[in-house]
Design goal:
rod-shaped, 89% helix, 2 helices, mainly alpha
Length: 54
Amino acid sequence: MIVGLGFLIGALIGALIARKKGGNRLDILQHAAVIGVMVAILALFVNILILRFI
């Protein structure tokens, strides 16, 4: 759940960054995918840490 939410938030942030820089549709899609995956991986590690300490 945390990982999916992290991906969605990261994709939204990536799309907004690319749109602000004046990118076309493919630029927006690429930024959204890359930043979404990066945030999802970070959320995965946070999820593992949370489950380890509980």
